[in-house]
């Protein structure tokens, strides 16, 4: 049974989601206070966290930020009555995996939950298949998939969960070019058409952390007219 945390102060929505998530073999923990929700999210392990933005004491955006700051990679769905684009962008920038605006269709909501679960299963399967090789070296950069660790010249580089996911996707497929929509779909697990700037900002932050020269990138290269690729010429086979 999957464990799901819902931080939502609308009791009717909580009751509705409880009924339908039980049909998906999910156990739902419901919290109506943002501060309590944050504490519970940081203290326990969940398969999915659903956050309202407008909450008492601590809002959903701040909860999302603090969860990701702890490198917790649990999928997060932002659930809110706000429809302004800035809220969606901010949620995605902070590491949310999906964003649903109220009022919403329960069918659409459940479809997105299933999509996130499927994505996690695929990621887990890929990680299991890569257990024989979990270390990847590119020049002075070392990537440890199993430990979710990146070092340059032996110095650990702190990355957000989404930054690490972007880096590991491209680094384990060096030389393969990805357009922005494809990266959104693979890393965020849903098609956020029109939000390609989310990828751009994450790539820029990644480059700022790992590139010796931002003006002339060494690791994350631009494929003009397409998107981005990881520099395959730096790959050092691990034996």
Main traits of this protein?
239 residues; alpha/beta; Rossmann fold; 2 domains; 5-stranded antiparallel β-sheet; 8 helices
Distance between the termini: 39 Å
Tell me the strand percentage band: 15-25%
The tally of helices reads: 8
Examine the secondary-structure arrangement and name the CATH architecture of the largest domain: 3-Layer(aba) Sandwich
Number of strands: 13
Any idea what the CATH superfamily of the largest domain is called? Response regulator
Which series of helices and strands comes N to C? EHEHEHEHEHEEEEHEHHEEE
Helix content bin: 40-55%
The main pleated sheet reads as: 5 strands, parallel
Q: Regions with pLDDT < 50 over 5+ consecutive residues? A: none
Query: How many discrete domains?
Result: 2
* General shape: elongated
CATH fold name of the largest domain: Rossmann fold
Task: Please list the strands of the largest sheet in the order they lie side by side.
Answer: 2-1-3-4-5
* Overall average residue pLDDT: 88
By helix and strand content, what is the structural category?
Answer: alpha/beta
- Taking all Cα atoms into account, the compactness measure Rg is 19 Å
Q: In the CATH hierarchy, what is the class of the largest domain?
A: Alpha Beta
């Amino acid at each position: 049974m999957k464990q799901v945390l819902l931080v939502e102060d609308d009791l009717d929505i909580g009751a509705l989601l409880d009924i339908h998530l039980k049909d998906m073999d999910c156990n739902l923990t419901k919290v109506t206070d943002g501060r309590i929700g944050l504490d519970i999210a940081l203290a326990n392990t969940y398969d999915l966290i659903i956050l309202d933005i407008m909450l008492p004491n601590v809002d959903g955006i701040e909860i999302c930020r603090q969860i990701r700051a702890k490198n917790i990679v649990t999928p997060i769905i932002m659930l809110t009555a706000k429809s302004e684009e800035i809220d969606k962008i901010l949620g995605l920038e902070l590491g949310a995996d999906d964003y649903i605006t109220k009022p919403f269709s329960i069918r659409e909501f459940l479809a997105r939950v299933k999509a996130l679960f499927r994505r996690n299963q695929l990621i887990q399967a890929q990680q299991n298949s890569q257990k024989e090789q979990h270390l990847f070296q590119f020049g002075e950069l070392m990537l440890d998939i199993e430990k979710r660790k990146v070092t340059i010249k032996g110095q650990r580089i702190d990355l957000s969960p989404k930054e690490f996911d972007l880096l590991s996707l491209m680094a384990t497929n060096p030389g393969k070019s990805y357009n922005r929509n494809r990266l959104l779909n693979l890393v965020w697990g849903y098609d956020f058409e029109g939000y390609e700037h989310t990828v751009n900002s994450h790539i820029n932050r990644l480059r700022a952390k790992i590139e010796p020269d931002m003006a002339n990138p060494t690791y994350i290269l631009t494929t003009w007219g397409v998107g981005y690729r990881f520099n395959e010429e730096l790959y050092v086979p691990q034996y």
